[in-house]
Design brief:
By secondary structure, the chain is mainly beta. It is 12% helix and 35% strand. It contains four helices and eleven strands; from the N terminus they run E-E-H-E-E-E-E-E-E-H-E-E-E-H-H. The strands form two sheets. A nine-stranded mixed β-sheet has the order 5-6-4-3-9-10-11-8-7. A two-stranded antiparallel ribbon has the order 1-2. The longest helix is centred in the first third of the chain and has 7 residues, at 12-18.
């Protein structure tokens, strides 16, 4: 048996837990960096399915997740405090914008074990990251956009290697596009024909014999 609330299915165990007089809620966050980062609001590690989340305790916070009846695209903020300065440059050089992130809501039972089937309460894309650094430790703040924002964006695709890498990490299918733009193109035998210039005009005749 399951219950559906706001378009989401809750397992029978979750329905029982959220209906109890006491609740031990947890939040789990996932970020699709080149090496995925998965964190949760407790200590130690916790596994959901085959995915392991690292606990950050009180070092991490997530702004309230807002929902409206008019399908407004509400974003959220993630904050991680106490980050060693050595890791800040890694965070800033990562090509993260537009990559997926999500927040799940779950609960622990009286023994501290995870109740099955946490439910997704936010799914979006990473937007802007800012860092406050005091020289020893840093606080990283990440803003994320709701996926509904995609419906307001024009569908524009550039056939460049940078765009292809952003969509499909490691795909080198367009790595020679920039070189082709400056390359002289010959029609037929290169020894007998003049190169075709930009606009389709041929250059002044040149003897290749």
């Amino acid at each position: 048996m399951s219950s559906t609330t706001a378009g989401r299915s809750l397992s029978a165990n979750m329905v029982t837990e959220v209906s109890a007089s006491q609740l031990s809620p947890i939040l789990l966050a996932s970020f699709s960096f080149s090496t995925p980062v998965r964190l949760w609001s407790g200590y130690g590690t916790i596994t959901v399915g085959s995915v392991t989340y690292q606990g950050i305790g009180t070092l991490g916070t997530i702004s309230p997740v807002e929902e409206t009846t008019d399908l407004s695209a509400r974003g959220i903020n993630f904050q991680l405090s106490g980050v060693p300065t050595a890791y800040v440059s890694i965070a800033l050089t990562e090509n993260y914008q537009g990559k997926e992130c999500s927040v799940l809501f779950g609960a622990l039972d009286s023994t501290g074990a995870l109740i099955s089937s946490p439910v997704t309460i936010f799914a979006g894309r990473m937007d802007v990251m800012s860092v406050n650094d005091d020289g020893q430790e840093a606080t990283i703040i990440m803003t994320a956009e709701n996926k509904l924002v995609d419906f307001r964006r024009p569908r524009e695709t550039r056939y460049t290697q940078e765009e292809q890498e952003n969509l499909h990490t490691g795909d080198l299918g367009l790595e020679f596009v920039n070189a082709i733009q400056e390359k002289q193109i010959y029609w037929g035998n290169a020894k007998l024909a003049a190169p075709i210039r930009d606009g389709g005009d041929e250059s002044e005749s040149t003897s290749y014999m």
